[in-house]
Amino acid sequence: MQTFSFIFISSIKSVKPTFPKKSRMPTSLNLASNFSKTYKNFEIKKKSVTNLKISSSNNEELFEKEEYLTEDKGIVKKILKKGKGIKPQTQSTVKVHYTGKLENGQVFDSSLDRKDPYVFEIDQGKVIKGWEIGIKTMELGEKAELIISSKYGYKKKRNSPNNSTKCKTFF
């Protein structure tokens, strides 16, 4: 069984979404078919989408899309569970669950272990740049893995999980 670290946006304040009821699709084939129909005229840019997986195990659907969020490929986002369409905006307050890992798999922080989501306001400089960029692209309820290069990560050794400014981090 493969384990993923993830960020999950559980709430966005200042946005009051309403959503139509959706029926659950029973198979991966239906999901792939609907995806194909929905995005028939959508041009997928080679630089942004590198991987798209649709699979089924234990009757649960998994939709995984991997994309680069920056031109220099310094932040990679893998969508593990699609959200509900509402994205946080500047000065939105978000509540996220996360697990932070180093390249070697060592966990350095986790809101899940504390059972307490992290709450912060977008674009206020309270989190690393990779989070600011990555979380702004996420939808309410979305689960994703962010792979953040050192350029968008920890700038000061004292804040870094392994006392290095050259570490890649996974959330």
UniProtKB/TrEMBL annotation:
Residues 91-165 form the PPIase FKBP-type domain. It holds the Pfam family FKBP_C. It is an enzyme of class 5 (isomerase). Gene3D superfamilies: 3.10.50.40. InterPro entries: PPIase_dom_sf, PPIase_FKBP_dom. The keyword Isomerase applies. PROSITE patterns: FKBP_PPIASE (PS50059). The keyword Isomerase applies. It comes from the Eukaryota. Its EC number is 5.2.1.8. Keywords: Isomerase, Rotamase. It catalyses: [protein]-peptidylproline (omega=180) = [protein]-peptidylproline (omega=0). GO terms for molecular function: peptidyl-prolyl cis-trans isomerase activity. This is peptidylprolyl isomerase.
